[in-house]
Amino acid sequence: MVDALLKRGHQAIYASGEESAGQIRDRAERLKLDLNQIRVVTDQDANIICEIISSERPQFCVIDSIQTFVPT
Predict the structure, then answer these.
(1) How confident is the model at residue 2, as a pLDDT?
(2) I want to staple 33 with a disulfide (CB 3.0 to 4.6 A). Which of 5, 28, 59, 68 is the partner?
(3) Buried b vs exposed e over 27-62: b needs ≥16 C-beta within 10 Å?
(4) Residue 7: helix, strand or coil by DSSP?
(5) What is the pTM assigned to this prediction?
């Protein structure tokens, strides 16, 4: 589903509390996803993630994994 949305030109934020930006980039390349449409955030601070989502207003956001994020 995510790849279909990206192929339609939707902007996304991918927030990861477990993987580095490099690991995410490698997976996106394997899946042949256009990284120009994905803003990768690897901060575990839930407040920072919420601020980024609020300011950038993407069409969708992936939170991976929610239990790794903590509010400060």
Answers:
(1) 63
(2) 28
(3) ebeeeebeeebbbbbeeeebeebeebbeeeebeebe
(4) helix
(5) 0.77
For residue range 8-38, what is the model confidence (pLDDT) as tens digits? Answer: 777 889 898 888 989 988 988 898 877 788 8
Q: What number of other Cβ atoms are within 10 A of residue 24's Cβ?
A: 21
Q: Take residue 65 and report the two structure tokens written for it.
A: 């994994």
Tokens of 43: 């901060």
pLDDT at 44 over 90: no
- The CA distance from 64 to 7, in Å, is 21
The DSSP string of 10-53 is --EEEEESSS-HHHHHHHHHHTT--GGGEEEE---BHHHHHHHH
Helix (H) or strand (E) segment spanning residue 5? helix 2-7
